[in-house]
Amino acid sequence: MERLPDYNSRNAHEIDYRIYGEEMQFVEIELDPQEAVIAESGSFMMMDDGIQMETIFGDGSQKDKGILGKLWGAGKRILTGESLFMTAFYNDLTGKRNVSFASPYPGKIVPIDLAEYNGKFVCQKDAFLCAAKGVSVGIEFSKKLGRGLFGGEGFIMQKLEGDGMAFVHAGGTMARKVLQPGEVLRVDTGCIVGFTQDVDYDIEFVGGIKNTIFGGEGLFFATLKGPGVVYIQSLPFSRLAGRIVSSIPRGGNSKGEGSILGGLGDLLDGDNRF
């Protein structure tokens, strides 16, 4: 098990973890007595006996902000397309207990220690997997008009705040880029997993009539300007889903698997629709 560094006056629960697998990973989190982890619905995989589940309202932070504060946290989650509620997993016994969360599709689970990034990390809205109890999961509001109008997949970003450990998922292969001050990286908006709060993020027009009409890569891409750390994924879920949908034969008929002989095969099988 990997252990978080012993930072003084840490507010979030300190958790141990271990990541298993290669293409379809899962993270196993070891909880000491009374420790807890929060997660989005649908990421739970398995847990030991003695762990209790509790549905919590809002952004998952420990702060007692009253009903209005909780409503505000829940409202921010609705803007990112997530549920009003999250699930907390508590260890109510005296010994250590494990709970595991799985990747939603092939890729890598990335551990993020928020204490090392000054308490904040910005990520794609569907990248968050789970985090130590006390980490706040909200929306990163954009103050630039270009992001709002043209951001596409990368427009709605979540922010993870606190001093605990969080886990995000990167589709396909993950690249970690350390940007120097003034260094610029141009990325497909869907390929962004997340970045540290010092990174300046904006949307840029590709430009050029041929690129716009025939490029096939979209009209806009994200520009990330250092200093800071950026995580990039090679397989965004939107790209994976698009490839799956495009490969489904029209009418739901799978004969020929979309090959050039598919239509001829249908005729030979008596499936004549003319």
Explain what this protein looks like in three dimensions.
This protein has one domain: Double-stranded beta-helix (4-Layer Sandwich), CATH 3.60.160. The relative contact order is 0.15. The protein is of the alpha+beta class and 274 residues long. It has a six-stranded antiparallel sheet with strand order 6-7-4-11-14-9. A six-stranded antiparallel sheet has the order 12-13-10-17-20-15.
Which features would summarize this protein structure in a list?
274 residues; six-stranded antiparallel sheet; single chain; 5 helices
Write down the CATH class. Answer: Alpha Beta
State the CATH architecture: 4-Layer Sandwich
> What are the low-pLDDT stretches, counting only 5+ consecutive residues below 50?
148-154, 256-261
Distance between the termini: 63 Å
SSE arrangement, N to C: EEEEEEHEEEEEEHEEEEEEHEEHH
Question: What is the spatial order of strands in the main beta sheet?
Answer: 6-7-4-11-14-9
Q: What structural class results from the helix and strand content?
A: alpha+beta
Average pLDDT, to the nearest integer? Answer: 78
Rounded Rg: 22 Å
Number of structural domains: 1
CATH homologous superfamily annotation: Mitochondrial biogenesis AIM24
Profile the largest sheet.
6 strands, antiparallel
CATH topology: Double-stranded beta-helix
Number of strands: 20
- Hey, roughly how much beta strand do the residues contain? 35-45%
Task: State the helicity in percent bands.
Answer: 10-25%
Number of helices: 5
Shape: globular
